[in-house]
Structures are given as C-alpha cells and as structure tokens.
Design a protein that fits this description.
alpha/beta, about 15% helix
C-alpha cells in the first residue's frame, strides 16, 4: 500500500502542483495517465505522470477485482474528492472486447491488459488527452453499439457526467463515483484507438495475396496476385503485392461462385451475361476459403447491385468500393460519415449508376449538398440527422421519387422542391413544422402527406382543396386542437385521415365526402360528425363521445370502433350498416343493444331481420363487454357471428337459441355477469356447434351447467372459475375429447372427475381454491403441461410409474395436509417448476411471524411459451421491521426480469445506507440496477416496480410508510377504507402526455402503434439502453404514509391491470382475504377476461396498528410474581407412549412419540408444555409485541414453583443448555459423519450434542450477534452466575419452529445473514426465475427438494425424532439445577385457562392453512410444571 500511495503521489503531481498541505492543485492540462496491466514501457517511456500498475481489470466480485479504491493512491483519491468536476476516464485499447471487460451479469473474468486510466477534469478536451498519451484520437461507444470518433474539442469526462445526469443521477458526488465504476462500460466506453472488429472487416472488405488463374482453359498460368472482394465486385491486381497498374474488375451480382473440386481450397468466380469472365482463386487455408465463399455467395445471390454498409461505424466509404461502378443501391445508415477525406460523402458522385442512397442516422447536422450532384438518384433518405434546412440544390434531383426527411428539425422547405415532378413520397414526420408547407401544392405526384409528430395546431380543410393530389394525410401527435371546415366546397380526393393522439374536442368532417378511413383515437372528442358515403373504417375509441353522427348511412362500413367512450345507446345508423363485420363498443354505458329500426312500423320479417344488430348477415365480431347490458335480443337462424364478448355486464341469461342459431360462433366470453344457466345445445353426436373457446368465470353457475356443454364437441378452452360448482358431471366431461385448457378454480369442488383422463389433448388444468382432497387422474395425459391445484385440501398423490415428459409446472401450495414422500419428490425431479409448501425452518420465519404484513403472489404464463414476469418478496428486510416487494415484466424476454429479481433487493439495502431521502435512494436503486444489468440491458429491458415498507423516521416508534418506485407499466394499488389508491405512474406513451412530449423533443420515431422506434411503448425502462435518451431508467417515486385504514397492497403488471380495474381488484382481494388465494384469483380473472400474455400479481396484507406497530397492551392475571429467572439445562427424550411426561430428575422433559408430525415437533420445541395440565395455575397472557418493542418474554419454560413471569417484563431470559439431535434421518440427505465439524458441536455416535443458548426474545440475525448481547442486559434480567453475569455461549443459537430445528454456529451467523435477494435463492433455481423469501405466507419449493450444501453451516433435524434423542444436562450444571429445583415452592393446583391470542385487525388475513395445534395429554406425577403456550404468530426462542 505504501508503494501505491507513493506512486499515486507521483501521478497526481503531474496533474497539478501541490500546496504546502500536500493537496493537489489543479492546473491545465490536468490529465494524468495510468496504464493498468503488465509492466511495460512504451510510447514516451519515462514521461512524468505515467504510472504502470501491476494489476489487471477483472470481473466485479472476483478476488482480483480492481475497485475504485485500489486503482489510485490516497493522494489521488484526495485529489478527486476535492472537486466534483474531476474524475477518471477509462480508455480501452483497440483489441478490447466489450464482452470480456464487462462486469455485468454476463461478464467474463478475463483480464484486460490494455486499460488506461486518465485522471482529468470536465474541462479536459479529447485533444489534450491525445497529446498526453501520444494518441491519434479518442473514440466513444454507447451501449455496446457503434464507435464514434470524438471531435478534438469534445470533453470526455463532461460527456460521461452528462450521460449520468441524463440517466437520472442528481448528486455531483454520486455522479463522480458512478463515473469511476467499471460496470458503466456497458453503457458508455471510451477507446484510445478504434476497436478492431474482425467480423465487420470481413463484411466490408476482404483482401489478400493468392494464386489466381484467369479463364477456364488450361492455357493461362497460375500467378500470385492481390485479390480484393469489396462491394459487388472481385478486384484482381495485375502486379503482385501492388495495386498500381491495371485493375481487373469482375462484377459478381447475378454471377456464380463455385467450388473447384479438383483443387483444394479453390473457388471459381464468374460474372453474369454473355461476355462472362471467370477467375480461379486458390486460397492458402480452409478459413480463408470459407470466409471468401460465404461473402461472395451473398453477393452473387442479389438481384440488384446493393451494397449494405449500415451499422459499421464508418467514417468513410472504403476506397475499393468505388471500383464497383455497377452499384445502384448504397445503404450507409447508422454510421458516422464525414464530408471530406478519402471516401467521404464528397466522393459519392463517383457512383455513376447510383439510384438509392440511405444516409439516415449519421449525425450529419447539415444537409450534404454533394448528394444533389448524383442526378441518377430516385430515392434519398436523410432521416434523423439533426438537419435544420434543405438547400435549394435539391431541385437538381429531377429523377427523385422518394425523399425521407423524418426525425430532423426542419420548419420549412425550399420552393425549389416543388420542381421535382416525379416526387411521389415525402416524409416530414417528427420535425418542427407548424403548418402544412405550401410547396406541397406544386408536388402533384405526392399522394401521401406524412407529418406525424410536428407542431401543427390547426388544420384548415380549405387548404386541402388546393392540394387535390393528396389522398393520405398523417397528422398524429401534433397537438392538433381544431379542424376548420368553413368552406362550403367539398373535399373529394382525401380518402385516409389519421388524427390520433391529438387534443381535439370536436371534429366535423362532413365536407370530406370521399373519406374511407378515419383514425381519431385518444383525443378528447365529445362530438364527431363524419360523411358516410365512402366510409369503410371508423376508429374513434378512447374519447368522450356520447353521440356519433354519420350521414348518409355508411353502407360500405366494415369496421367500427367506438370503445372507451360515454355512449348510453348505439346510434341508429349502426343497425342500418349492411356490411359491418367488426363492432367494438366495449367500455361504454350501454344498457341494451338496438333490436328494431325506429322508422320501421310494418313488423315484416325482412325489416325485423335487417334491423336487428345481432342478426346482421355480415357481423362476425361483436365486442360489447364492460357495459350495463341486462339482456340480449333474440337471434334469427344462421347468423355469421364468430366472436361474441359480453363480459362485465349485468346479464342474467343468454338467449335460449344462441347456440342453435349462431352456428359459426367460435368464441364466447360471458364472464363477470349474473348468469345462472347457459343456453342448451343438442347432445347428439351430430351437433353442429363450432364453439372452441368458452369463458364463464365469475357467474352463479351450478353443476347442472356441465350437462349443457356436451354438445360442444369442438370446445378447446373452458373457463368456469369462481362459480357455484359443487361437482362436474363425470360422464359429460368425457365427451369433451378436444379440450386443451380447463379452469375450474374458486368453486366448491371436492374432486375432479376421473373421466378427465379422456381429454387426451388437455395441456392445462387449473383448479386452485377448491376443496379437492384427491389428486385427479391427469398425470397419464400425454400432453399435460401445467397443473395448478393450490389452495385445496389434498392429502396425498397417487402417481403412475412415470410422469409425462411434457409436464412443466405443478403447483401444490396451500395444501396444508399434503405429505409427500421422497419417492414422490424424486419422481417430480424433472419438472421445471414444482411449487410446494415448505415448513418454516429458517430464522426469517420467526422474524416474519411478528411482521405486520404477509404476502402471496401468482405468476401465469398464459399462452406464451415462457414466463417473462418475475417477483421479489421479502417480508423482512434487514434487521428491522421493513419489507420489500417487487414485480418485473420483461414483455418478451425473461433474462432482465430474473436479473432484477436477484439484484434489486441487495441494491436497495445498499442505497438505504447512503441516503435517508426516499426519492434519492429509490432512484439510485433503479439507476444502479440498470447499470448492473450489464450487456443484457443493452438490447433488452423490463418494466419494474419496487415497494419498500419502512419507518418514516429513524426512531423505532416512527410511523410506517410505503415508498413505491416504478418504471414502465407495472403498477401498485393500495386499498384504503375499501377504495383503491394508486401509488404508481404508468410510463407509456399513450398514458403519459409529458413523456410523449419528451420523446418527441428527442426526435425519436414513434410508430403508429405508439412504440419508440417500433420497439416499446414505454418511455422508461430498466435496460434497453440502446434507446437512450428516449427511454430512461429514472423511476417515479411516491411515498404514502400507512395507517390502520390500509388493508392491503396489490402489485401487478400491465397485463393484469389492462383486464382488471383497480376497483375490481380491490373488491376481489377483499372477498378472498388470503393473500395467496387473492393473487391467484386476480390472475385467473385476467385470463378469463381475455388476457393471453404473462400475468403477475403480488398481494401484501397489511395489519397496521394505530401507532404503526403491532404492539398490543399486555393482559395480566392476578398471579404472584417475583421469582428470579432461572437458567437450567433441558432434556428432551422421546418415549414410545403418546403422552408427554415431565421428568423431575432432569429439570424439564417433553416426550414425543416418533409419529409426531413435524409441525407438532416444532410447536413443542418452542414451548415444552401445554395449557391443559390440570394442576397448572392460571398463567398470565403473553403480551403481543412487535420486533421494534421486544419487551416481554414470548416463550417461557417454567420450573416447579414458578407461577408467573419475572418482575422484569421488559427483558428477555437467556438460558444456556445443551441439546441433542439425531442426524440419522436428516432431511438434507447427508449422514452426520459427512457434516463438517462445527465449533461447539460434539458428535457422539448417533447423537449430536450441541451447546446452545435458548433465550426468549424475537430472534434476529445481526452482525456480531454474540457481541451485541451486552452483559448489562443479563444483569438487569437477573442471573445465577457470579457477579450477575451469564456464561457466554457463542457457539450455537438454536431455533425451533414449524417442525424443524435449526442449529446455527456462531461463526456462521454472518454467513447466514445473506443479502435479501440471495437469501431467497436456495436449492435449484426455477425456470421462471421466481425468487421469494421463505415465510409462512409464501413458502414455495420451486423444484424438487435438494440436499443443502455441507458448507451451509446448519443441519436440519428429522421430521420423525430418533427414540434416543434427548436434551442432555451438562454435568457442570446438574448440581446447580437440582439445588434450584429444591428451592422452588409447590405449584397451586388448578386448571389453567388456555391463552387467547389477541385479535388481529382482521382475522381473515390469517393463513388459510395454519399448522395444527399441539395439545399433549397432561402428565401424571408430582411436580407438574405449568407452561405458557407461545403465540403462533410470534414464536421467540
């Protein structure tokens, strides 16, 4: 370290002079260079200020990882800290591979010897840094994409700081720290030389010296020549090793490249046409041969002379490309082309036959006038180049037909543009036009005006009269406020008009009589008038329409979208549309569908048939969900209706003739209604029903409806969840042989009929939240993939000899009586995701028992092949009463959600230590997680929501608050007094106006489906860094104080809340009450409402007291007190009998039968007696306390003579003793002999003697647990040890709960206190990446059980105790205990009332399957000890 500081002083001295105190004084030039890597001297050799460190860059987290602190000496660090405008720039060499130096999740630990560290300030320019290191230039790479050369005046460190500030970092000190983080290289990276990309060079240019022969005859001889493959031609030099003299050009487009079999590694190149020439090239190696063959085959397969050099970081066109004079299409998109220099844009006119030129995304800044000299151009693309003006020379391109100028900063066009008579397509979207350019009046060939994303506030219809050639007009995203149509003259040429996402409140287009398609979604329209003479499609959803006027009747209308408006009745003209095929009126206020044309009074069959909407002979798709419909009109025969959506209405019945007359009906969704029956269908085998999907969730259907489904032989999907089904007819289910998906959740079923085995195509069975006791016979189905039988009453599973290989997910959680044998678990080992209830065996379970919240969660993949939603659930974060919950939605990728799931909990814990401001630590948590995604976050991204429950102040008694941060479309809802309170903000372009404006100002291209560059609809995500600065990781942060009126939290992804409203979600959870079952129901409802995507939901039940803690006033009985706290050893000896006897010879003995269940053992271990002893006196009721106020003993082992608690109610009791456990049948699958010897653990044959400390307080793992327990605490509590102190037992802490005993070595406490996210990951990682903490409300084993690692530092006791296991009294304490027992007063006989747990705020939030209570029989004999039974919600040890 002394050498490092000394070297650091030398380097820092080069950056500036030092004052008397030794501080570095900044002087210009203030750049100091450090080279990290092997010792070497190069360049300027012994230049002052260059220090060579003998370290390599390694992956973050490795032993040799070079941190920010180890890079520099102490003086250098002081120099950096003295001014936030100083920092470090990492310069990578040309051979640096981003995949090798990345420190993210996909990083490699390969060292990089060519990393250089430059200390500089924000005013240091690239030119100064190059001068310092004798470099020719600096390069920057963003998000692992293209590499750009820095201008001499650009300042690298300032660029780095600006990039971090744009991400969301606000604190200059934090910006300086983040800039020095090596993980940042995945986002922004600087190079001292242009990096070498072999693959890019191969696709751009191939050259070498090979043996060449011209012609097919043998007369020509082989000769060594320089051969080049560039563009569309093969170039052969006439002189060896030289490009001087004559060059032989062989055009390859349309030609042939063939292998010469008579000669090894030889290719024959032939041109096309009658005058074809042939060259034979013999390569030296197989690699060269394959490389040239691959590239040449692409060229000869082209039908046009196209050269694609896009995304190559080019600054100039390769010089050899100009030999390809047949090039007609040149794509230079996404490069950094310069004007001057060899191969610059000024040389492009050398292509004499060029027709198409693409220069988009080249950061030009100025329109390149040189392209106006390429008179052969017919297509020119200059989009996204920050252009401010178009030169008048554009008029020279008389052959130009397509001109794309989108994504620039143009506000006007030159008049010379009007002279381009052949121009037919002009792209002006996302510029700065505030009006339609007048020059368009002269462009008679232009039929489409693309001006989306400009600033046109008012559109005058009369101006369109002068542009009679325009047929398509796109004015999306313009902030359009009015459309003026004052001219009486009709507009007859306009056929397509797109006015989506504007600010219109009324729209009158009656004068546009030729309009065929109108898009006006997402405005604020209250009135709409459209001419219907030629109308084909009308899209007017997401407005405030209460009436729509269309005249005349649109007889050509085929598609009508009036969804999400305020319509109370459909317009009359809708029934008169004879060709309408799709009608969407969802989310309105409709009470009925029109049944008769008001003007018709004759009542004839023809008028009646033509006037009924459902009887239209053209209507195939009717979407009328989320309205107030109470009935449907009857149908006539043979209506062509195929899709009928009636969900979320008030329908009590469906038309009796629905299935008889709508024979083409394939999809019917009548969920969330009041149906008590369904229409009948013929039960004969010749039924004509074509119904394939039937959704009836959330009605009042009973088991009689099952018989009515038999006639639907083609049924593939059946959802009848949350009805009143007591059973499902077995004989009827066997008839549905084509059934693929069956959902019967939330009913009262006790079994699934065995005839389900007849459904050979069934791949999904969901039947959670029932009363099923017998596992259905579905494991012999050949295509079964998913089985969800959670929240039932299963007791066992009868398995076949082998399981179907298609089974991927099996959910058996929430079945409290289910016991699985090891054989069964082994048979389940191949299942990708196996979810089982896990017994509480960890210390976290004890801590979570006292937390004022619990949670449940659910993930469903839907009809997707993979699950791209992940959850984070930590009921106990750190050492205090805090919790963290999160949901991450990757849309189409599963990598980013899993990475966030595993890291965000850790990051939050770190950030909370750095700042106490909620907006700061939550924002930094998201930004740091974004950085830690590494290379995975460059192209992939995810919506994320993090919910942090904490105390608002630093005081333990401070009130609780919930802080929510989110990006993307994940949302959080708080139920307060039965009403939903939104805690998040949806960052999508459709829902957030300010984000839309920000993205537009950044000149991003927003496609018609409102996606940034056609990729994502979100403006803020974690990941997708290549879309920066349009898509940012900075989150929305909101803090809400919690009170006793807050019942629960709901976290969900976009798919959930698109289908389930906030109010319905709140009502759903209120009705179910159990968090896990509630989350299941939310996802099931979303699926039944039509969601096909991944769905995720987390429900957090809150039990917040008035003072924001769970403390309740203590309740005492009139019992004598004052006995001192006694410490003594405990012996626990199982006996063959079923009764539990107390032995007076060894203090306290609890005997267990070997058949006692695991949960009973855990309860007995926590409290070794019952409240039913006849001789036990009334014991005081233990006070319920939270972990913030651990004042009272929650688990007390009384001795003879004791009749109550000690006088010090606020202190815990610490009782050293010795415990003996058997390891012969340990659940971890390891023998006791294989275990690593633990400190303080004595192995004795089949027994394991463990010195333990049993104390009666809330058990928490803290750093330095043994040291944190001060002697003063023991003095206050009383002790029998000399000097008032207890013997310190630091070797082992024993926790007993829920049937498992946990022995934790003192030296392993720090290891077991893992990070919040890492502590959730135990056993085999599930395929869906689910990571949740182990607690009663959500104890899931995602895969088949595995044996824990030997080095885990603990050992799990068997479920069935060994008969010889006992708690042994140490000899050193035996005499002392006997003396204490002799001095105890006899107990007062009498029954003891069982302690009544204090009522929770809402008992319905208790777990639906609590562990069975332990009620041992009273033990005979004298000296019976009354024992206080611990509260089940807070077991202390």
């Amino acid at each position: 370290m002394a050498m490092e500081d000394q070297a650091g002083g030398t380097a820092a001295a080069a950056a500036g002079e030092r004052d008397d105190s030794g501080a570095c004084v900044d002087r210009q030039p203030d750049a100091v260079l450090h080279r990290v890597g092997p010792v070497h001297v190069g360049g300027r050799g012994g230049r002052s200020g260059i220090r060579v460190l003998k370290r390599n860059m390694k992956r973050a987290g490795s032993r040799g990882c070079m941190t920010r602190k180890s890079r520099f000496g102490s003086r250098e660090r002081d120099w950096l800290k003295s001014d936030t405008r100083r920092g470090c720039v990492c310069l990578y060499g040309a051979a640096a591979d981003p995949q090798l130096t990345t420190t993210g999740p996909q990083a490699s630990s390969t060292p990089q010897p060519d990393l250089q560290l430059v200390l500089c300030s924000t005013s240091t320019t690239a030119e100064e840094m190059c001068a310092q290191r004798d470099g020719r230039g600096l390069f920057v790479q963003l998000h692992g994409d293209l590499v750009r050369r820095l201008e001499p005046t650009e300042r690298p460190l300032q660029m780095l700081y600006d990039y971090l500030a744009a991400m969301g970092y606000a604190d200059p000190v934090r910006v300086q720290q983040e800039a020095a983080n090596s993980d940042l290289s995945c986002l922004i990276r600087f190079y001292g030389e242009r990096p070498v990309n072999a693959d890019q060079q191969e696709r751009t240019l191939l050259k070498g010296v090979f043996s060449v022969r011209k012609g097919k005859t043998q007369l020509h001889k082989w000769a060594e020549r320089q051969v080049i493959l560039c563009g569309t031609c093969l170039i052969v030099a006439s002189v060896k090793d030289s490009l001087t003299g004559k060059m032989h050009i062989l055009p390859l487009v349309g030609g042939k490249v063939e292998e010469v079999k008579r000669r090894q590694h030889c290719l024959m190149f032939s041109s096309a046409g009658s005058q074809a020439q042939t060259y034979f090239v013999n390569f030296d190696t197989l690699a060269d041969y394959q490389r040239w063959h691959r590239q040449a085959s692409k060229v000869v397969s082209q039908t046009i002379s196209l050269v694609d050099l896009s995304c190559y970081s080019l600054e100039a066109v390769p010089e050899y490309l100009f030999y390809s004079q047949d090039v007609t299409h040149l794509n230079l998109r996404h490069n950094f082309m310069s004007l001057g220099g060899p191969g610059g844009l000024l040389h492009l006119p050398r292509f004499s036959q060029l027709k198409s030129l693409n220069l988009s995304h080249n950061r030009l800044g100025v329109f390149p006038e040189c392209v106006c000299e390429i008179l052969t151009l017919t297509e020119l693309c200059l989009s996204c180049n920050n252009l401010h003006a178009v030169p008048a020379q554009i008029g020279n391109l008389q052959s130009l037909q397509t001109l794309s100028l989108d994504g620039n900063r143009l506000s006007s066009l030159p008049n010379e543009l009007g002279g381009l008579s052949q121009l037919s397509s002009l792209g002006l979207s996302f510029n700065d036009f505030n009006h339609v350019p007048a020059v368009l009046e002269r462009l008679s060939a232009v039929d489409k005006l693309a001006m989306a994303g400009n600033q046109v506030v008012c559109l005058e219809v009369c101006a369109l009269l002068r542009m009679s050639h325009l047929k398509h007009i796109d004015l999306r995203l313009n902030g359009l406020r009015c459309v003026k149509s004052e001219s009486p003259e009709a507009v007859t040429q306009l056929t397509h008009l797109d006015l989506r996402d504007n600010c219109l409140d009324s729209l009158d287009l009656a004068s546009v009589r030729s309009l065929e398609t109108l898009h006006c979604q997402r405005n604020q329209l209250r009135a709409l008038t459209v001419g219907g003479a030629a109308l084909h499609k009308l899209h007017a959803g997401n407005n405030r329409l209460s009436a729509v006027s269309v005249f005349p009747v649109p007889n050509q209308l085929t598609h009508l979208d009036l969804s999400q408006n305020l319509l109370e009745r459909l317009p009359d003209w809708v029934c008169d549309c004879r060709k309408v095929e799709t009608l969407d009126v969802t989310h309105n206020l409709l009470t009925e569908l029109p049944s008769r044309r008001p003007s018709c009074t004759c009542g004839c069959i023809h008028c009646d048939a033509s006037s009924r909407l459902l009887n239209s002979l053209s209507l195939r798709k009717l979407l009328a969900g989320n309205n107030r419909l109470q009935r449907l009109p009857d149908l006539l025969d043979h209506v062509p209706l195929e899709v009928l959506d009636l969900q979320h209405n008030k329908l009590g019945e469906l038309p009796e003739s629905l299935f008889f007359k709508a024979l083409n009906l394939k999809h019917l969704n009548a969920s969330a209604n009041n149906l008590e029956s369904i229409p009948p269908i013929g039960q004969s085998d010749d039924s004509l029903s074509t119904l394939q999907e039937l959704y009836l969730t959330g009605n009042n259907l009973n088991e009689n409806c099952g018989a009515l489904l038999v006639g639907h032989h083609n049924l593939r999907v059946l959802h009848m969840a949350y009805n009143q089904l007591l059973s499902f007819p077995a004989s009827k289910l066997s008839k549905l042989e084509l059934l693929e998906e069956l959902n019967l959740s939330g009913n009262k079923l006790k079994s699934i009929p065995s005839t389900v085995s007849s459904c050979k195509r069934l791949h999904t069975l969901i039947a959670h939240s029932n009363h099923i006791t017998v596992f259905p016979e579905i494991l012999n189905l050949p295509e079964i993939k998913l089985v969800d039988l959670s929240c039932n009453e299963l007791t066992g599973i009868q398995l076949p000899e082998s399981l179907p290989p298609s089974l991927q997910e099996l959910d058996l959680t929430g079945n409290g009586s289910l016991m699985l044998e090891h054989k069964t678990l082994n048979l389940f080992s191949h299942i990708t995701t196996l979810k089982l209830d896990q017994k509480s065996t960890t210390t976290a379970d004890l801590q979570n028992a006292s937390a004022p919240w619990s949670h449940g969660y659910c993930e469903m993949s839907g009809q997707r092949n993979k699950l791209c939603v992940s959850m984070l659930a930590i009921d106990r974060l750190g050492d205090s009463v805090e919790a963290c919950y999160g949901i991450f939605d990757g849309d189409r990728n599963e990598e980013v959600p899993r990475l966030l799931q595993c890291t965000m909990g850790d990051v939050l814990c770190e950030e909370v230590q750095h700042s106490s401001i909620d907006s700061v630590y939550m924002s930094n948590t998201f930004l740091t997680s974004h950085r830690k995604l590494g290379m995975a976050g460059q192209k992939l991204g995810a919506s994320a929501l993090l919910c942090y429950i904490h105390h608002e102040s630093s005081e333990p008694g401070g009130f609780l608050s919930v802080t929510v941060a989110n990006v993307g479309t994940c949302q959080a809802v708080l139920c307060r007094d039965g009403r939903p309170v939104s805690l998040s903000k949806v960052y999508s372009l459709e829902n957030c106006t300010e984000e839309m404006e920000r993205v537009k100002l950044g000149k991003a291209i927003i496609t018609e489906d409102n996606k940034v560059s056609g990729v994502t609809c979100c403006s803020r995500l974690l990941g997708c860094s290549y879309l920066s600065p349009w898509v940012l990781p900075k989150p929305w942060v909101h803090t809400e104080p919690l009170s006793s009126q807050d019942d629960f939290l709901i976290l969900g992804n976009r798919a959930l809340f698109e289908r389930v409203s906030y109010q319905e979600a709140v009502c759903t959870v209120q009705a179910v009450r159990d968090p896990r079952a509630a989350a299941k129901k939310l996802c099931t409802l979303a699926q039944s409402y039509g969601c096909k995507d991944n769905i995720g939901a987390v429900v957090v039940a809150l039990n917040i007291a008035e003072d924001s803690c769970t403390c309740e006033p203590p309740v005492y009985t009139t019992e004598p007190r004052g006995l001192p706290h006694v410490t003594f050893p405990v012996s626990m000896t199982p006996a063959p009998s079923d009764t539990a006897t107390l032995s007076s010879t060894s203090g306290v003995v609890s005997e267990f039968n070997s058949e006692t269940s695991a949960s009973e053992v855990g309860s007995e271990a926590g409290s070794t007696a019952s409240d039913e002893h006849p001789n036990a006196g009334a014991a005081p009721r233990p006070e319920r306390r939270c972990s913030l106020h651990p004042g009272t003993t929650l688990c007390v082992i009384m001795v003879p003579g004791s009749v109550g608690l000690g006088s010090h109610m606020g202190l815990f009791q610490r009782q050293p003793s010795s415990a003996t456990f058997s390891s012969n049948h340990s659940d971890n699958g390891l023998d006791s002999d294989d275990e690593t010897p633990l400190e303080g653990v004595i192995s004795n044959g089949s027994k394991l003697e463990v010195e333990v400390d049993i104390h009666c307080c809330a058990f928490q793992l803290r750093p330095g647990t043994s040291e944190s327990l001060k002697d003063s605490d023991f003095e206050k509590g009383g002790s029998d040890y000399p000097n008032g102190k207890m013997r310190r037992q630091n070797s082992v802490v024993v926790s007993a709960t829920n049937g498992c005993l946990l022995a934790v070595c003192g030296r392993e406490i720090a290891d077991l206190k893992k990070s919040p996210s890492a502590s959730c990951l135990f056993g085999k990682k599930p395929s869906n990446g689910s990571v949740v903490a182990s607690e009663d409300s959500h104890n899931l084993i995602e895969v088949a059980l595995e044996a824990p690692k030997k080095k885990s530092g603990y050992f799990t006791a068997p479920a069935q105790q060994d008969p010889e296991d006992q708690l042994i009294v140490p000899p050193c304490l035996e005499q002392e205990v006997r003396e204490q027992l002799k001095g105890q007063s006899p107990l007062v006989s009498g029954p003891s009332a069982p302690p009544t747990p204090p009522p929770l705020k809402d008992a319905g939030w208790d777990q639906s399957h609590p562990p069975p209570p332990l009620t041992p029989n009273p033990a005979p004999g004298p000296g019976v000890i009354p024992i206080i039974k611990p509260e089940v919600y807070d077991t202390a040890l």
